[in-house]
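Running low. Invent one:
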Amino acid sequence: MKRLALSSLSLALLGAAGAAHAQSSVTLYGTIDTAITFVHNANPAGQNQWSVGNASNGDLSGSRWGLKGQEDLGGGLKAIFQLENGFNPSTGALGQGSRLFGRQAYVGLTGDQTGTVTLGRQYDPLVDLVQGITADNYFGSAFATVGDVDNYDNSSRTNNAVKYVSPVFSGLQVEGMYAFGGVAGSTGSGQTWSAAAAYNNGPFSIAAGYFVADNPSVNGLARPSTTSGSGWGGTSDGTFDGSLVNLGYQSAKSINIARVAGQYVIGPMTFGAGYSNSQYKADGQSAFASTEKFNTGQGFFNYQLSPALLLGVGYSYTKSSGDTDGTYHQVSVGADYNLSKRTDVYLVGAYQHASGETLNADGTGMVAAQASIGSYGYGGTNTQELVSLGLRHKF
């Protein structure tokens, strides 16, 4: 009798565990994206460069692997999590500052009627709602803003963040995020906050948002220049890809970004346009004297030539003002061919011309503006050309 009772209890517990497991799921996923890239005028000496892969952002997609899952808590409420690692497939090295889960790491709750709250290292609302209707969503870094000064190519992620995403109401969705700076005695020091909204109605989509990342003081002393170490230390990663477009502004008091984008789909054709205003604000601890502003206008046209082949062309114009006076024109082209649902090959290219002046690396003097295509981070002469032939696989 005792043995039978224990067996019955064991079966009941196993059944309960099986039922709970059926209401939960964990998914392993990933993307491996690498390319053979040629850059003309890859440095100020005008030298050319051949390479395999790109250590920072990849081409169409940053390489990654991750785990994501959910548990049904009942009443339409679910617990969710996501852990996402970034890496360089050419070397196997970790990305995002050698973090194990540098792309994303968060846990949260989601409800069909109430929306989603998540806590951890995350993308900001501009990335979530605006980036998806830009050319970067289709063709990646070669179509991105010069130096990624407006985080067009998702260079920055935010630590210590609490984010809320609303349900979709008649095509409208809103999102807000706040990241705690964690500085004792100074609540706002090092904080990040952002908000965005998106509206989708059939073929038409539009989204806009605002992002502010604070750079905390360093014991009341001047923030270090890039020659002695990074001057950026906020909860967000910053928007510095290594080129001289904005490298001299790492000691900024804050980075403020406003972005708006829209797209319209007509059969196989997609038309898109966007505008951003990025401000690197100065204070008494900054190496530079006055706020630097980057105004960028962009447009693109995609054509789905066949179910497997997507073609695209884009143009980007960036004008800096305030601390310096630089102008950047960039033309980009791309083709992406799907070999299967998970594997595609692509060819992207871009040309950029720069004029005017920018800051040197430590933010203390003026130099001639360097062409630097998208977010690749190659600082060249006043012109630069790039061609990349790549292979991407998703699992």
